[in-house]
């Protein structure tokens, strides 16, 4: 199956600073991918590289089987930028007309129906809409393009919890209805938990982990027990994070194998635990693991 997003040694540098480096990922079609990481981690940079709005400094990025930013790719990729920008002086109807003019595959019925379901007045100026309504308008424009891949950069960051939920529900309905892959970035793991089935964690401009959430949760465990040096863990237990008190150690490890050591209390992780473990400073005794699935 063609990867919706394939990066090979992808990097982007601004001046001397790398915003993204050594990014190698393969995301199969049909997923809703959550891209998570702290401020400045490189999320927007990765999304803009995928959307063809930035050129790589190193490596390559392909979307839907062709180089990102090529004419065929631009026609098949929808991009909803950070803060879901719309034109404040234009009406909702103007936005739909603009969308129709700019996109060959424009689905006018989808756009009209969605605006109707949202209860938006076509004559309203976008500048007078609430944050949630503006986000919904931007999502409608993205969906009516009928993209194969929809990229959303922190689409719900500025919305209240109800508007956030409605936005993500609308997105999930669209995913269920149309054959659509989605990559969205967010700081809020709870939003990703409800929406995504694939996760990428970016920290300090590097991909720390990427994979299907179900597999990631099945292969990551928290071990708690008497204090132990991480170097004394079996080689197949890759240490993601380690914390110690005088007497006790707590590790988050990734392993495919069962854990039999009776010294450990073994528990599973929530998605938030997993993300936070990868955001901590890497455990010193082992090289950092990058999971690609
Ligand atoms: N046009 C630019 N010129 C110089 N530096 C930039 C530019 N765009 C981004 N950067 C830097 O690159 C790094 C990654 O930025 P990016 O916006 O990709 O991070 P992010 O994870 O999306 O952050 P946030 O969550 O705050 O939106 C940051 O250090 C940022 O300051």
Automatic annotation (TrEMBL):
Keyword Iron: no
Keyword terms: ATP-binding, Nucleotide-binding, Transport
Domain named ABC transporter: residues: 5-229
Highest taxon, organism lineage: Bacteria
Molecular function terms, GO-annotated: ATP binding
SUPFAM superfamilies recorded: P-loop containing nucleoside triphosphate hydrolases
Name of this protein: ABC transporter ATP-binding protein
Organism of this sequence: Microbispora corallina
Lineage, opening ranks: Bacteria, Bacillati, Actinomycetota, Actinomycetes, Streptosporangiales
């Amino acid at each position: 199956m063609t990867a919706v997003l394939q990066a090979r040694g992808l990097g982007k540098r601004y001046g001397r600073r790398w915003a993204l480096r050594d990014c190698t990922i393969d995301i199969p079609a049909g997923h809703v991918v959550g891209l998570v990481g702290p401020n400045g981690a490189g999320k927007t940079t990765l999304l803009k590289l995928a959307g063809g709005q930035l050129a790589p400094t190193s490596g390559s990025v392909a979307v839907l089987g062709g180089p990102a930013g090529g004419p065929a790719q631009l026609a098949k990729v929808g991009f909803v930028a950070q803060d879901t920008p719309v034109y404040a002086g234009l009406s909702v109807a103007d936005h739909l007309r603009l969308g129709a003019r700019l996109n060959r595959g424009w689905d006018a019925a989808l756009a009209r129906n969605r605006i109707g379901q949202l209860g938006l007045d076509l004559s309203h100026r976008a500048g007078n809409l609430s944050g949630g309504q503006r986000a919904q308008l931007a999502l409608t424009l993205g969906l009516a393009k009928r993209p194969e891949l929809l990229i959303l950069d922190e689409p719900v960051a500025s919305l209240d919890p109800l508007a956030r939920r409605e936005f993500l529900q609308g997105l999930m309905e669209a995913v269920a209805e149309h054959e659509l892959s989605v990559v969205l970035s967010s700081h809020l793991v709870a939003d990703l938990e409800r929406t995504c089935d694939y996760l990428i964690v970016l920290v300090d401009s590097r991909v720390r982990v990427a994979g299907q959430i179900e597999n990631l949760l099945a292969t990551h465990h928290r071990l708690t027990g008497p204090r132990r040096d991480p170097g004394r863990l079996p080689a197949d237990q890759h240490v993601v994070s380690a914390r110690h008190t005088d007497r006790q150690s707590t590790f988050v490890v990734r392993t495919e194998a069962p854990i039999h050591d009776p010294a450990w209390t073994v528990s599973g992780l929530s998605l938030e635990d997993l993300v936070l473990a990868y955001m901590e400073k890497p455990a010193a005794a082992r090289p950092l693991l990058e999971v690609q699935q």
